[in-house]
Amino acid sequence: MLLAVCPNPSVDYYIWTDSLEPGKVHHALREERYPGGKGVHVAMAAAELGHEVTLLAFWGAETGKWIKNECFKKNINCIGPEITEWSRSCYTYKSDGAYDDTELRGCGPEITSEDLRLFTREFELAAKASNVITMSGSWPKGSTSQGYAELIKIARKSSIPVFLDATGEPFRNGLREKPYAIHLNYNECRSLTGLSDIPEMIDYLGTYAELVAITAGPEGLYLGFDESIIHGNVILDNIHSAVGSGDCLTAGLATGTIRKIKTDDLVRLGVACGAANCLRKDLGMLHKSDVERLLDKIEISSL
């Protein structure tokens, strides 16, 4: 089983307008909404790949219920405290001109110390039944920057591999607890390490994690593992959206770890999952058939 931790899930809206102009009233041409949050994307991708998945989150009021219901439809077991304040909503505006793909990310609810205690307790129970754990994204207000660090300590007691994909203080504090694997994009990695050379980044981060995954957009994935660096990439046509691709890639690496596949195949699966997400209009989702079709198209090289 894969346990996906997503402290701050969201309802992700795509809203189309003719244009966006500061200070003007705009009317939407079309709206679409999807279950979101990095860990939600990981959970949906892993479930589509055929794995048993449990998703741990804070579920906030009506928006939280909607997100949970959408995940249930995909055979994802959802656990975690139900709280009073609504789960956040995040908006991406599609229009002609400079404001296309403008994003507005909600901050989410504020949790209490009791909410956090219940969350941690459910994590302890679910972790014992898990083969791999992913921890992704931000935390809601009221939590501390030690959230991931504390969960990694708990997972370590049972020697369960943890994949950490986050930013800011929650990531830095979690990194100090030495998770099994980490995933960052290139810009996040440069900001964290002060380095610009990918092999140097991997060498530095390899002192904290056994597996280091750095994604560089159209340049693909660089994976550091067992004193080697492998690069994987694929050329795509007709890209709909890259939103959630990094999370789908994390799901590929995590499920490949559960299957204990060799490193080259792990890179292929991770890249195929990230790329498959780009082929459909649904945000942060992939289709297993697309992943299988892409696997043989992934170009692999060693650095």
Characterise this structure.
This protein is an alpha/beta fold and 303 residues long. It has one domain (2-302): UDP-N-acetylmuramoyl-L-alanine:D-glutamate ligase (3-Layer(aba) Sandwich), CATH 3.40.1190. It has helices spanning 38-48, 61-72, 113-127, 147-157, 168-176, 186-193, 198-205, 245-259, 263-277, 288-294, and strands at 2-5, 10-19, 30-36, 53-56, 59-60, 77-79, 82-83, 88-96, 102-105, 132-136, 162-165, 181-185, 211-215, 221-225, 228-233, 299-302. Strand 13 (211-215) and strand 14 form a beta hairpin. It is globular and about 55 Å long. The two termini are 33 Å apart. The relative contact order is 0.14.
DSSP E strands, number: 16
- Main beta-sheet annotation: 10 strands, mixed
* Number of helices in the DSSP assignment: 10
Number of domains: 1
Q: What is the CA-atom radius of gyration, in angstroms?
A: 19 Å
Strand content: 25-35%
The strands making up the biggest β-sheet line up spatially as 6-4-1-10-11-12-13-14-15-16
| Form type | globular
CATH class: Alpha Beta
Which structural class matches the secondary elements?
A: alpha/beta
What is the CATH topology assignment?
UDP-N-acetylmuramoyl-L-alanine:D-glutamate ligase
User: What is the N-to-C succession of helices and strands?
Assistant: EEEHEEHEEEEHEHEHEHHEEEHHHE
Mean pLDDT across the residues is 94
Helicity level: 25-40%
CATH homologous superfamily grouping:
Ribokinase
Fold blueprint:
Layout: E1 2-5, E2 10-19, E3 30-36, H1 38-48, E4 53-56, E5 59-60, H2 61-72, E6 77-79, E7 82-83, E8 88-96, E9 102-105, H3 113-127, E10 132-136, H4 147-157, E11 162-165, H5 168-176, E12 181-185, H6 186-193, H7 198-205, E13 211-215, E14 221-225, E15 228-233, H8 245-259, H9 263-277, H10 288-294, E16 299-302
Parallel strand pairs: 1-4, 1-10, 2-8, 4-6, 5-7, 10-11, 11-12, 12-13
Antiparallel strand pairs: 2-3, 8-9, 13-14, 14-15, 15-16
